[in-house]
Amino acid sequence: MRRREVFVESVGVIGPGFANWREFETVLGGSNPLPSTWALTTSPPCLPANERRRAGLPVRLALAVGQQAVAAAGRDPATLATVFSSSGGDGDNCHALCEALAGDDRQISPTRFHNSVHNAPSGYWGIAMGATASSTSVCAYDASFSAGLLEAAVQVEGSGNPCLLVAYDVPYPFPMSRCRDLGGVLAIALVLVPGPGERTRNQLTLGFGRGACTEMEHPDLERLRRHIPAARGLPLLQALTHSEPSRVVLEYLDPLRLIVEVCQCPSTVAG
Hints:
Elements: E1 4-14, H1 21-28, H2 49-54, H3 57-73, E2 81-85, H4 91-102, H5 110-115, H6 120-129, E3 135-138, H7 144-159, E4 163-169, E5 186-193, E6 202-209, H8 219-227, H9 234-240, E7 246-251, E8 257-264, H10 266-270
Parallel strand pairs: 2-3, 2-4
Antiparallel strand pairs: 1-5, 1-6, 4-5, 6-8, 7-8
Helix pairs in contact: 3-6
């Protein structure tokens, strides 16, 4: 793959111990342990009442982190192309469907059914934001963050238009968690644009390579990185805070790695 170049306009992040980018920066700069359990419980007010009642945790999480990034970029969400990336989708809903099919009645709720598809958060985003631009939903197991980032970068480069990347994961309930323990709830959102501007903060150059993945300096954030697929993107967020150019190695499809070279935009450095 030839190297791809995009620019980061804004960031959203939600996880245990941080509800937004500012709180994440505070965690990065300290050594306090993160809470062992955490979950996003509120439904986004942007959804109509019926959809708020039906939305599961993955939808609430994806919409909340996506709204953070879009608001920080000052963009109209209705016009943004989107890429949604998740390793497992809605595990709670999948568990409920399996329970229903294993019972005597075996009747499936229509709401459960339409929430079971992998692009459900994309659909809810379209409803909430009135978005009509293209939307792509991807899944690549533990490489899902990198696959989403690469897909969004290719779309930005090919179309010349901004794109919102939303990567999210929530854990599976028991007994599925015995086979696939995702370790927690976390989401990252990036607004990517084709060139520098007043709001761009970092330039990213993407390519393939090999080697050991970049680890987090904070021990609890490193634990998240190892156990939550969406958290494989945390080293990139860490690099976005550095004043000097840096190189981040992200997990991709073995034996390849996604290599991301990160540098601040001149306007960011000057500001």
